[in-house]
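Sequence, please.
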C-alpha cells in the first residue's frame, strides 16, 4: 500500500519544523543544506514541491536577546521580522546554486478565510509551480494577531496541501514518527510505520511536544494528517534531523509513519468551508430545520432558526447547531448578524418586506454547507456521525 501511494505522488508539500532546522543559537545551516540536497534530487526526478517552513522566529530571536520562545506576540513578531529574511536567504543560498529559484509566500489565516484571497493565493502558487519555482510558505508572524493565527505550521501545511491539491504532505519533525507509546519513557515503544485511519486509540498515542522552538506536537501533526486526508492526500511524518530521510521514503524504505488518505475525497470548496474558513458565530435550529438539513439535504431557511451567537457578516462561516448546541454543520451565511436578527423565525416571503431587500430565500444554501458527518467521514469511515 505504501508503494502504491507514493507511486502516485506528483506534487507534495514538505513542512519543515523549527526543531529540525533551528538550535538555541539560530538556524542550523548544515541541516538546511541536507534537506535542500534531497529536495533538489526530488525536483530533478520531476516532482513539484512546496515548502512550508518554520524557523523565522528562531532565526531572529537571538538578535533581541531572547532565550527560548518569545514570551509575547510583539516580541514574536519582532523576531520574525528579523528572521524571515535570514530564513529565505538560507534556502536561496542552498537551492540557487543547484539551479532552483525560490519565492517567499507569507500567509495569515484571514488570507484563506476570504474566498477571493484564497483563490488568489492558489493562483500564485500554481503559477510558481508552472515556472518551476519553489514556493516557501510561512505564517506572516510580523502582522498576524492571535485570532487570525493558523495555530502552528502543521495546520498551515495541511491547508496548503488542499490549496494546491497535493498528493502527499510530508512533515519533517525531530521524531522518527508516531510511536504506540512515548519512546522517551518506554524504551520498548514501537514505531507505527503505517496508519490506515486516525482513531481515538491512535490519538491517545500522541503526546505533547517538549520543543522550546516550535509550537506543535504530535497532536497537531495528527490533526494535520486528518485534514490532508480529506482532500485526498497521504501524510508522512519523518525525522528531518536525520540525513536522507526524504530519499529513503521515495525509495520505498519503511521510514517514518504514513497516514493513508481517506477513501472519499472532499471537494476543495467543501474542504475550505469545513476546515479553513474560521466560523464567526453559530446558529441554533429547531427540530424541523435540523432534520431538513441532516436528513433531507435541504438549505437552511430563516423559519427554522431559533437563536444565534457571535457577530458575523454576509459571506462569513458559521456553525449550525441543534437546539441543544450540538454542531450539525458549517456553512457560509447569506445574511449578516443584524439582518438575521430581524428575519430569523420568519417565512421566506417575509424577508424583503422586513429588510427592504432580499439576497435570496436561503440563509445558508446547501451548496455552501458541510454536514458534521461529512467532516468526519474520512477519519471514521462512517456516514452516521450526525
Amino acid at each position: 500500500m505504501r508503494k502504491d501511494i507514493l507511486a502516485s505522488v506528483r506534487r507534495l508539500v514538505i513542512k519543515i519544523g523549527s526543531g529540525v532546522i533551528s538550535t538555541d543559537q539560530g538556524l542550523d545551516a548544515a541541516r538546511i543544506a541536507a534537506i535542500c540536497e534531497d529536495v533538489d534530487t526530488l525536483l530533478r526526478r520531476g516532482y513539484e514541491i512546496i515548502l512550508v517552513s518554520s524557523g523565522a522566529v528562531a532565526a531572529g530571536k537571538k538578535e533581541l536577546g531572547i532565550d527560548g520562545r518569545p514570551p509575547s506576540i510583539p516580541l514574536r513578531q519582532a523576531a520574525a521580522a528579523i528572521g524571515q529574511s535570514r530564513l529565505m536567504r538560507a534556502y536561496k543560498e542552498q537551492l540557487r546554486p543547484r539551479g532552483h529559484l525560490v519565492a517567499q509566500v507569507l500567509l495569515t489565516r484571514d488570507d484563506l478565510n476570504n474566498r477571493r484571497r484564497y483563490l488568489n493565493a492558489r493562483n500564485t502558487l500554481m503559477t510558481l509551480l508552472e515556472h518551476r519555482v519553489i514556493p516557501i510558505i510561512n505564517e506572516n508572524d510580523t502582522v498576524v494577531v492571535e485570532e487570525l493565527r493558523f495555530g502552528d505550521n502543521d495546520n498551515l501545511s495541511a491547508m496548503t496541501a488542499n490549496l494546491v491539491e497535493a498528493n502527499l504532505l510530508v512533515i519533517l519533525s525531530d521524531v522518527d514518527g508516531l510511536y504506540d507509546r512515548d519512546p522517551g519513557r518506554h524504551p520498548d515503544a514501537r514505531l507505527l510505520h503505517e496508519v490506515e485511519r486516525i482513531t481515538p486509540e491512535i490519538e491517545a498515542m500522541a503526546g505533547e511536544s517538549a520543543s522550546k522552538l516550535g509550537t506543535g506536537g504530535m497532536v497537531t501533526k495528527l490533526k494535520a494528517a486528518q485534514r490532508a486526508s480529506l482532500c485526498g492526500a497521504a501524510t508522512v511524518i519523518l525525522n528531518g534531523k536525520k540525513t536522507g530521510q526524504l530519499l529513503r521514503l521515495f525509495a520505498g524504505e519503511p521510514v517514518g509513519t504514513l497516514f493513508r488518505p481517506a477513501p472519499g475525497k472532499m471537494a476543495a470548496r467543501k474542504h475550505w468551508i469545513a476546515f479553513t474558513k474560521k466560523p464567526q458565530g453559530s446558529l441554533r435550529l429547531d427540530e424541523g430545520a435540523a432534520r431538513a438539513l441532516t436528513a433531507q439535504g435541504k438549505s437552511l431557511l430563516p423559519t427554522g432558526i431559533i437563536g444565534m451567537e457571535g457577530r458575523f457578516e454576509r459571506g462569513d462561516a458559521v456553525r449550525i447547531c441543534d437546539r441543544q448546541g450540538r454542531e450539525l454543520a458549517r456553512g457560509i451565511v447569506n445574511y449578516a448578524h443584524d439582518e438575521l436578527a430581524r428575519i430569523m423565525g420568519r417565512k421566506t416571503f417575509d424577508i424583503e418586506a422586513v429588510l427592504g431587500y432580499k439576497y435570496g430565500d436561503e440563509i445558508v444554501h446547501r451548496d455552501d454547507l458541510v454536514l458534521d458527518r461529512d467532516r468526519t467521514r474520512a477519519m471514521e469511515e462512517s456516514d452516521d456521525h450526525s
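The two ends are 31 Å apart (CA to CA).
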